[in-house]
Structure formats: C-alpha cells, structure tokens
Inverse folding.
C-alpha cells in the first residue's frame, strides 16, 4: 500500500513538474504576457506574431488600448492603417466586434467619448466561413500544459535558445526596423495595432448568415447608448444582400455604413 502511494506521489510530482515547465516556457504562446508588448513600446519596435500567440490576440489588443488610451479605434480584420489604434486582428469577425465593444464600454469612463471605425468584410457574414474561437476552456489549457507535444516543443525551444525559452522574446534588427520576436520577425504588429503582412481575403459565397448580424446589432446599440461616434465601411462590395443588410443595420442606430474600395 505504501509503495503504491509512493508511486502515485512520484507520478503526481513528475506531472506537476512537466506542467510547470510548460507553463514557464509556454512554447506556443497560449498564455498572454504583456512583457513583449512592453519591450516593443519601450524600444518603438514591431511586435512579431510569434511573440504573442494566436489565442492571445484579444488580450494583446486590450492591453494595447489600456496603454495608449486612444480617442479613435478601428475594429477590422484587414490590418490596414487608418486613423486610430487597430483593435482587430487576424480572425476578427462579427462576434469579436461585440466582445471588443463590451470591453470598451467597461474600460472607458462614461464621460469619455470614442470614435470607432468598424470595417466589415463579406466573409464575416458568409455561412461557409467558420467563426474563429479565441477563448480557451480550463480543460483545454490543462490539456496543453500536460501534452507530450507541448513538452517536446518546450525542450526544443530550450535547446535552441534559453533566452527565448525563459524570457519569451528577443529584440533584433530586421532590415531597417527592430522587432520583438520569438525567432521569426515577420509577420508582426505595428505599434498602432496594424499588421505588416496583408490579411488574406477569404472567398465568399452567396450563403449569407443573417444570425451573424445580431452581435453587430448589439455592439452598435451599446455604442449608441454611450453616444460614441461610429462609422461603418467595407473595402469589398460583397453581395447585394450584404450591402443592403449592413447599410440598414447601421442606419437603425443612426450610423452610416458604406463601401469604400481601397486604391490599388
């Protein structure tokens, strides 16, 4: 009996040690740390995608907003430079508009006004385009920490660079620009939140997902209650249904939405 308890205890200690090591190194950047953003802001460098992690994009953009406190923000998935700080990211869509608007409503004092540009894309409302999930469950995070694959990535990163493994980033020169990265300087976020690489334009179908209008409707209602100035636009014309529904939805809340093609 004592031997069995001892064996179980040893196994628990080993498993806990593996989880702790994976959490410290976090080779796939599943847990957000503001350290890389702090380094990028302090040195006025780009922040590489690989120093953040795809699932941490929402946390990164909220952190950027809190540090910069802009009066203008942009919610888009194309990463094109526009006046204000870009709070969108690759994979941003209709549901993320509402999530970010709720965050802004909590983060911004009642007496402070915001100007918001919402740049929609036809793919946001395409039924054949799957919605991206950024939130992780506790079980998913635990599975990541205990995964043999994660441990393999942790050990590989430790062998390659102790700095990247335990600090999480490095500051290096990439051409004329410095980049805070974890081994790959491109692609990256600029300090206004936009991207250095053009976002892909997914192919769209005529299958319009009307239910995806609901989170945008709720987001606009929230902005209307706060009396924020909102402008809606699209750089792609999309279908007739897309144009009709988006124009009517924004007009419902007293805002304007229009198609504005980008200059080639």
């Amino acid at each position: 009996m004592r031997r069995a308890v001892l064996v179980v205890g040893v196994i628990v200690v080993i498993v806990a040690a593996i989880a702790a090591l994976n959490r410290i190194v976090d080779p796939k950047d599943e847990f957000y740390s503001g350290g890389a953003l702090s380094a990028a802001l302090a040195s006025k460098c780009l922040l590489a995608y690989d120093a953040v992690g795809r699932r941490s994009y929402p946390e990164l953009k909220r952190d950027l907003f809190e540090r910069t406190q802009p009066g203008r923000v942009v919610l888009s998935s194309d990463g094109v430079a526009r006046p204000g700080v870009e709070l969108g990211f690759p994979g941003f869509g209709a549901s993320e508009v509402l999530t970010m608007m709720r965050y802004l409503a909590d983060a911004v004092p009642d007496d402070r006004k915001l100007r918001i540009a919402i740049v929609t894309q036809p793919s946001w409302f395409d039924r054949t385009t799957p919605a991206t999930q950024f939130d992780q469950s506790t079980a998913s995070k635990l599975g990541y920490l205990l995964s043999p694959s994660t441990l393999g990535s942790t050990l590989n990163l430790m062998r390659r660079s102790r700095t990247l493994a335990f600090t999480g980033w490095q500051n290096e020169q990439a051409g004329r620009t410095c980049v805070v990265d974890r081994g790959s300087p491109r692609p990256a976020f600029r300090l206004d939140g936009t991207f250095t690489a053009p976002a892909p334009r997914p192919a769209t179908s005529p299958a319009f997902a009307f239910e995806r209008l609901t989170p945008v409707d709720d987001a606009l209602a929230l902005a209307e209650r706060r009396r924020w100035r909102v402008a809606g636009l699209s750089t792609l014309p999309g279908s007739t249904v897309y144009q009709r529904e988006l124009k009517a939805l924004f007009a419902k809340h007293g805002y304007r939405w229009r198609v504005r093609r980008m200059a080639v």
The CA atoms of residues 119 and 230 lie 11 Å apart. The radius of gyration is 21 Å. The first strand starts at residue 46 and ends at 48. The chain has a mean pLDDT of 90.
